[in-house]
Amino acid sequence: MSAFxxxxxxxxxxxxxxxxxxxxxxxxxxxxxxxxxxxxxxEVEGRPLMRAYSMASANHEEALEFFSIKxxxxxxxxxxxxxxxxxxxxxxxKATGTxxxxxxxxxxRLLLLSTGTGLAPFASLIKDPDVYENYETIVLAHxxxxxxxxxxxxxxxxxxxxxxxxxxxxxxxxxxxxxxxxEPFRNRGRITDLIASNQLFDDIGQSGLxxxxxxxxxxxxxxxLEELHAMFSARGFVExxxxxxxxxxxxxxxxxx
Length: 257
Fold this sequence. Notes:
It contains eight helices and eleven strands. By secondary structure, it is of the alpha/beta class. It has two domains: 4-96, Elongation Factor Tu (Ef-tu), domain 3, CATH 2.40.30.10; 101-252, Nucleotide-binding domain of ferredoxin-NADP reductase (FNR) module (Rossmann fold). A six-stranded antiparallel beta sheet has the order 4-3-6-1-2-5. The longest helix has 13 residues, at 222-234. This is ferredoxin--NADP(+) reductase. GO terms for molecular function: ferredoxin-NADP+ reductase activity; nucleotide binding. Its cofactor is FAD. It catalyses: 2 reduced [2Fe-2S]-[ferredoxin] + NADP(+) + H(+) = 2 oxidized [2Fe-2S]-[ferredoxin] + NADPH.
């Protein structure tokens, strides 16, 4: 248990029957880069039950925030979804992950492409002032099945638009593109199809994918990651990592359970 900090749950919000977010205290010694994840979980029968979760909060915020799916028979999430204010969670002492700007070659437009709870690391990154310094435009695309599943992302972006410091930055630089696949909505379709057809770029009034200017981060379902990885690789985009920056990076650490 020495590998984990005990933190106190500060708030819990259930967005749908399958999605919730929560905040917790943050140990002063816990450091992370925006976009990284840590192992978090609960003590069950005297032993830690842990899974990888991206911080949805930024590294300059005092509290930690996480965005989670509910899996009714999941070993951890079946328990985690029942937490309440005042409960204790475990947080790993070390953060890691590939979705950091240092793993990308400098560019002008940053595409943050997510599905489901894969939005979490990007909720952290769009609160990072350095991202707005380094890129002319940031496009946050979030794909879900139903409109209700977009609520958390809309809440985060709306909060930043109203923020005294981030509001002016976002007005000029951040483009938020939510899309759904199973209900009528202003944006319809899978992110993979919307990029392949150029529809996403047409919808936001910008030029299509360009290896000279575009840098990309991916986090979401395995199918989405596999398709986009193949698409970008076929167009000459090289994947980056800690040892060699590239044109796009992928977070492969998560399994929804």
